[in-house]
Structure formats: structure tokens, C-alpha cells
Design a protein that fits this description.
Shape: globular
Strand content: 5-15%
Mean pLDDT: 91
Low-confidence stretches: none
Structural class: alpha+beta
Helix content: 25-40%
Strand order of the largest sheet: 1-4
Number of strands: 8
Order of helices and strands: HHEEEEEEHHHHHHHHEE
Length: 223
Amino acid sequence: MPEVRNQCIRCGTCCMKGGPALHAEDLQLVLQNRLQLEHLVTIRQGEPALSPLGDQLEYLQAEIIKLKGQANDWACFFFDKQSSSCMMYQHRPLECTLLKCWDTGDLERIINKNLICRTDIIPGDSPVLEYIVTHEKACSLVDLGSLLASLPVASLQDEVMAELTDMVQKDMANRAHALASSDFPSSMELFAFGRPLFKILNNFGIRVRESGGTLILQLSPEK
């Protein structure tokens, strides 16, 4: 008979799967600098992400602010792997407070509710907000799902790849412009602009390379 658990055993499984999304209740953690912008990553509207209640891929209807991962994996930034403990436990976000792996009911009730976004955090007169607005206008991800869904259609493939190439170029150009400015901290890139589009496309078998100063997108043969 399987063991029935009713308390955390600090196995770290939840923390290794990624950081929590931030809700309105967590805004004070940011405003009080317990969470700094360099600790956060924005998952943008239209970006593909795994459903928090399952393993299916979905395209986000609204942006999400999350605690970013560590280096090259999804483990929460504040998860200490050696001690299997949280480095901000006393001030952990709402989702972490409610999460019980043996009973996920409380967590499920708040999923995708009262989430905060970048404009909740960045003051209206901040130059960083101007970079964010410019980036969204230049390379929104709202149509990304339909573009990727059209890729298997041979007659549309060239058109889709051209549009994706244009989006990647604009994404990289806007990031480079911001990072070259003295009023844009490089540590804020993932919060301000989210993950680079070319990294997102890698998950769909689309590789980006540079040739003679030109970006070229290539679809993997198996795609």
C-alpha cells in the first residue's frame, strides 16, 4: 500500500520544476525589494508554455511574471540544491505558500487568477517601460501559435519562415538597442523582454544561424 503523506519532506521536486508565477499578493515582495527584477522572467502573451495543471502546451492568453530558473535548468532561482531548501522561505510567494504536493486543491484555485504583469511593477515614468512598450509593438507573440501551426502546410512554409525571421530580427534588435543604453540594466533583460524568441523557436525544431550579417532560420528535417 503506498505511503500517505501529509507534510513536505523537502525532496525538492516542486522547486526543480520551476519558479512560481507571481500574484497580486506577491507585489509587495517586489516593491520591498525582497524580489528584485533580476530574479524575474516574463512569459509573454502568446508564448507557448506548459499548463500548470498538466503537461499540455498552451499559448498564454496573458503574460505571466515568474521567478526565473538557475543557469541551464528550470530549478527555481531561490532553490538551494545542496540543502534542498528555499533561500527565501520566510518571504516566499503565494503559490509556494499554498503548494502541497499531496493536496494541490488550494494551489489549483488560484492558478491564472490575479496575476501581476510588468506594468504593475514598472513606474509609468520609467525609461524601461518605454523599451518594453516598443518591444511589444515591434515583435508581439500574439500570432506565434497560428504561425507555428501553419508550418506543416508546405504551401505556407516559406511565408511563415519569413515572418518568423522578421520577428526574431526585431526581437534581437530591440534587445540590443536597450542593452546598449545606460538607462537599461542588463540584469533586467529577461524581466523586460522575456526569453529571446530564437530560444523559444529552438523548442519547435527551428534553428537560427548568422551568415554574412544576416539571420537565417532553418527548420529541422524531422519537422
